[in-house]
Specification:
The complex is a heterodimer of chains A (110) and B (114).
Chain A (H helix, E strand, L loop, with lengths): L4 E3 L2 E5 L4 E6 L6 E7 L5 E8 L4 E4 L2 E6 L4 E6 L8 E8 L6 E2 L3 E6 L1
Chain B lengths: L4 E3 L2 E4 L5 E6 L6 E8 L3 E9 L2 E4 L8 E7 L2 E6 L8 E8 L8 E2 L3 E5 L1
The chains are: A mainly beta (110), B mainly beta (114).
Protein backbone atom coordinates (compact mmCIF):
# COMPACT_ATOMS: atom_id res chain seq x y z
CA UNK A 1 0.00 0.00 0.00
CA UNK A 2 1.22 3.51 -0.71
CA UNK A 3 1.77 5.65 2.31
CA UNK A 4 3.00 9.02 1.06
CA UNK A 5 1.05 11.08 -1.40
CA UNK A 6 2.74 13.98 -3.13
CA UNK A 7 1.05 17.20 -4.08
CA UNK A 8 0.92 18.66 -6.66
CA UNK A 9 1.25 15.88 -9.22
CA UNK A 10 2.96 18.29 -11.58
CA UNK A 11 4.56 21.70 -11.15
CA UNK A 12 5.98 24.07 -13.72
CA UNK A 13 8.03 27.11 -12.71
CA UNK A 14 10.52 29.58 -14.14
CA UNK A 15 14.21 29.26 -13.45
CA UNK A 16 15.15 31.17 -10.32
CA UNK A 17 11.79 30.65 -8.63
CA UNK A 18 11.28 28.46 -5.59
CA UNK A 19 9.53 25.10 -5.89
CA UNK A 20 7.53 23.58 -3.06
CA UNK A 21 6.28 20.02 -3.05
CA UNK A 22 4.22 18.42 -0.33
CA UNK A 23 3.83 14.90 0.95
CA UNK A 24 1.01 13.67 3.16
CA UNK A 25 0.86 10.32 4.85
CA UNK A 26 -1.59 8.34 6.93
CA UNK A 27 0.15 6.54 9.78
CA UNK A 28 2.92 7.47 12.18
CA UNK A 29 6.39 7.22 10.73
CA UNK A 30 9.97 6.55 11.82
CA UNK A 31 11.45 8.69 9.11
CA UNK A 32 10.57 10.26 5.79
CA UNK A 33 12.89 10.50 2.80
CA UNK A 34 12.88 12.52 -0.41
CA UNK A 35 14.28 11.18 -3.66
CA UNK A 36 14.76 12.67 -7.12
CA UNK A 37 14.42 10.81 -10.40
CA UNK A 38 15.65 12.27 -13.64
CA UNK A 39 14.02 10.98 -16.78
CA UNK A 40 15.22 7.49 -17.63
CA UNK A 41 17.34 7.18 -14.49
CA UNK A 42 17.18 5.59 -11.07
CA UNK A 43 16.12 7.40 -7.94
CA UNK A 44 18.66 9.46 -6.04
CA UNK A 45 18.37 10.08 -2.32
CA UNK A 46 18.12 13.75 -1.31
CA UNK A 47 17.29 14.03 2.38
CA UNK A 48 16.16 11.85 5.28
CA UNK A 49 14.25 13.47 8.14
CA UNK A 50 13.44 11.55 11.29
CA UNK A 51 10.18 11.73 13.19
CA UNK A 52 11.74 13.78 15.99
CA UNK A 53 13.12 16.39 13.58
CA UNK A 54 11.22 19.34 12.20
CA UNK A 55 13.50 20.76 9.54
CA UNK A 56 16.61 19.81 7.59
CA UNK A 57 18.67 21.60 4.98
CA UNK A 58 20.95 20.41 2.24
CA UNK A 59 22.29 23.05 -0.12
CA UNK A 60 19.28 24.59 -1.87
CA UNK A 61 16.94 21.98 -0.40
CA UNK A 62 14.87 22.48 2.72
CA UNK A 63 12.63 19.76 4.13
CA UNK A 64 10.11 20.23 6.89
CA UNK A 65 8.14 17.64 8.78
CA UNK A 66 4.93 18.20 10.71
CA UNK A 67 4.00 14.95 12.43
CA UNK A 68 0.83 16.44 13.88
CA UNK A 69 -0.45 17.09 10.38
CA UNK A 70 1.25 13.99 8.95
CA UNK A 71 2.86 16.03 6.23
CA UNK A 72 6.23 17.05 4.86
CA UNK A 73 7.34 19.62 2.36
CA UNK A 74 10.36 19.88 0.10
CA UNK A 75 11.45 23.36 -0.90
CA UNK A 76 13.96 23.91 -3.69
CA UNK A 77 15.19 27.48 -3.70
CA UNK A 78 16.46 29.36 -6.76
CA UNK A 79 15.53 26.52 -9.06
CA UNK A 80 17.58 25.63 -12.12
CA UNK A 81 16.72 23.82 -15.34
CA UNK A 82 18.76 20.89 -14.02
CA UNK A 83 16.26 20.51 -11.17
CA UNK A 84 13.70 19.26 -13.69
CA UNK A 85 12.84 15.78 -12.45
CA UNK A 86 10.27 13.79 -10.51
CA UNK A 87 10.44 14.04 -6.76
CA UNK A 88 9.24 11.26 -4.48
CA UNK A 89 8.65 11.05 -0.79
CA UNK A 90 9.12 7.71 0.91
CA UNK A 91 7.83 6.92 4.38
CA UNK A 92 9.10 4.40 6.87
CA UNK A 93 6.72 3.01 9.49
CA UNK A 94 7.01 0.27 12.06
CA UNK A 95 9.42 -2.39 10.96
CA UNK A 96 8.76 -2.09 7.24
CA UNK A 97 10.98 -0.75 4.48
CA UNK A 98 10.33 2.40 2.47
CA UNK A 99 6.98 3.00 0.80
CA UNK A 100 7.11 5.48 -2.07
CA UNK A 101 4.48 7.91 -3.25
CA UNK A 102 3.73 8.51 -6.92
CA UNK A 103 5.81 11.65 -7.11
CA UNK A 104 5.65 15.24 -8.25
CA UNK A 105 6.89 16.07 -11.75
CA UNK A 106 8.78 19.35 -11.62
CA UNK A 107 9.56 21.28 -14.78
CA UNK A 108 11.89 24.26 -14.50
CA UNK A 109 11.74 26.45 -17.56
CA UNK A 110 14.84 28.40 -18.51
CA UNK B 1 32.39 2.81 -5.90
CA UNK B 2 30.53 2.08 -9.14
CA UNK B 3 27.14 2.18 -7.49
CA UNK B 4 24.40 -0.36 -8.06
CA UNK B 5 24.80 -2.06 -11.41
CA UNK B 6 21.92 -3.52 -13.37
CA UNK B 7 21.84 -5.44 -16.61
CA UNK B 8 20.53 -5.39 -19.19
CA UNK B 9 19.49 -1.74 -19.41
CA UNK B 10 16.85 -2.54 -21.99
CA UNK B 11 15.10 -5.78 -22.80
CA UNK B 12 12.55 -6.47 -25.50
CA UNK B 13 11.05 -9.92 -25.55
CA UNK B 14 8.00 -11.76 -26.74
CA UNK B 15 5.19 -12.97 -24.55
CA UNK B 16 5.93 -16.36 -23.07
CA UNK B 17 9.69 -15.94 -23.04
CA UNK B 18 11.80 -16.10 -19.90
CA UNK B 19 13.37 -12.84 -18.76
CA UNK B 20 16.26 -12.55 -16.31
CA UNK B 21 17.26 -9.25 -14.80
CA UNK B 22 20.54 -8.90 -12.94
CA UNK B 23 21.78 -6.70 -10.15
CA UNK B 24 25.07 -6.09 -8.41
CA UNK B 25 24.61 -4.11 -5.18
CA UNK B 26 27.10 -1.73 -3.65
CA UNK B 27 29.84 -3.68 -1.94
CA UNK B 28 29.24 -4.02 1.79
CA UNK B 29 25.53 -3.30 1.63
CA UNK B 30 23.44 -5.83 3.55
CA UNK B 31 20.06 -5.08 1.98
CA UNK B 32 18.94 -5.50 -1.60
CA UNK B 33 15.56 -4.43 -2.97
CA UNK B 34 13.77 -5.09 -6.24
CA UNK B 35 11.18 -2.55 -7.42
CA UNK B 36 8.89 -2.22 -10.40
CA UNK B 37 7.85 1.19 -11.72
CA UNK B 38 4.88 1.86 -13.98
CA UNK B 39 2.88 4.97 -14.71
CA UNK B 40 -0.27 3.42 -13.31
CA UNK B 41 1.05 1.90 -10.10
CA UNK B 42 4.13 3.98 -9.39
CA UNK B 43 7.09 2.38 -7.63
CA UNK B 44 6.26 -0.99 -6.07
CA UNK B 45 8.51 -3.03 -3.84
CA UNK B 46 8.60 -6.60 -5.13
CA UNK B 47 11.01 -8.32 -2.74
CA UNK B 48 13.94 -7.54 -0.51
CA UNK B 49 16.87 -9.49 0.88
CA UNK B 50 18.97 -9.13 4.01
CA UNK B 51 22.36 -10.82 3.95
CA UNK B 52 21.27 -12.79 0.86
CA UNK B 53 18.13 -14.13 2.54
CA UNK B 54 14.70 -13.16 1.16
CA UNK B 55 12.84 -11.33 3.92
CA UNK B 56 9.59 -10.22 2.32
CA UNK B 57 8.34 -11.28 -1.10
CA UNK B 58 4.73 -10.22 -0.57
CA UNK B 59 5.06 -7.71 -3.39
CA UNK B 60 5.88 -10.31 -6.00
CA UNK B 61 2.84 -10.19 -8.24
CA UNK B 62 2.58 -13.84 -9.26
CA UNK B 63 4.35 -17.17 -9.23
CA UNK B 64 5.77 -16.23 -12.59
CA UNK B 65 8.15 -13.94 -10.72
CA UNK B 66 11.09 -15.29 -8.74
CA UNK B 67 14.19 -13.72 -7.25
CA UNK B 68 17.43 -15.11 -5.93
CA UNK B 69 20.52 -13.80 -4.26
CA UNK B 70 23.16 -16.53 -4.38
CA UNK B 71 25.85 -14.30 -2.87
CA UNK B 72 26.37 -10.81 -1.49
CA UNK B 73 27.31 -9.34 -4.84
CA UNK B 74 24.66 -10.69 -7.18
CA UNK B 75 20.90 -11.00 -7.46
CA UNK B 76 18.50 -11.99 -10.22
CA UNK B 77 14.84 -11.35 -10.86
CA UNK B 78 13.27 -13.83 -13.24
CA UNK B 79 9.94 -13.71 -15.02
CA UNK B 80 8.79 -16.94 -16.59
CA UNK B 81 6.69 -16.84 -18.69
CA UNK B 82 6.61 -13.12 -19.39
CA UNK B 83 3.40 -11.28 -20.28
CA UNK B 84 2.78 -7.84 -21.86
CA UNK B 85 1.54 -6.50 -18.52
CA UNK B 86 5.00 -7.13 -17.07
CA UNK B 87 6.31 -4.28 -19.19
CA UNK B 88 7.80 -1.77 -16.78
CA UNK B 89 11.07 -0.41 -15.47
CA UNK B 90 12.63 -2.69 -12.86
CA UNK B 91 14.98 -1.17 -10.32
CA UNK B 92 17.38 -2.74 -7.93
CA UNK B 93 18.48 -0.80 -4.85
CA UNK B 94 20.77 -1.51 -1.95
CA UNK B 95 21.12 -0.20 1.57
CA UNK B 96 23.98 -0.51 3.99
CA UNK B 97 22.63 -1.36 7.41
CA UNK B 98 18.87 -1.08 7.54
CA UNK B 99 15.77 -1.56 5.45
CA UNK B 100 14.68 1.86 6.70
CA UNK B 101 17.66 4.00 5.81
CA UNK B 102 18.90 5.52 2.56
CA UNK B 103 18.61 3.34 -0.50
CA UNK B 104 20.89 3.57 -3.52
CA UNK B 105 19.23 2.79 -6.81
CA UNK B 106 20.59 1.28 -9.97
CA UNK B 107 19.78 2.77 -13.39
CA UNK B 108 16.97 0.30 -13.97
CA UNK B 109 16.07 -2.22 -16.66
CA UNK B 110 13.38 -1.12 -19.09
CA UNK B 111 11.42 -4.23 -20.04
CA UNK B 112 9.04 -4.42 -22.96
CA UNK B 113 7.09 -7.62 -23.48
CA UNK B 114 5.42 -7.81 -26.88
Amino acid sequence: SQQGEEDPQALSIQEGENATMNCSYKTSINNLQWYRQNSGRGLVHLILIRSNEREKHSGRLRVTLDTSKKSSSLLITASRAADTASYFCATVSGNTPLVFGKGTRLSVIA
Amino acid sequence: DAGVIQSPRHEVTEMGQEVTLRCKPISGHDYLFWYRQTMMRGLELLIYFNNNVPIDDSGMPEDRFSAKMPNASFSTLKIQPSEPRDSAVYFCASSSTSRQETQYFGPGTRLLVL
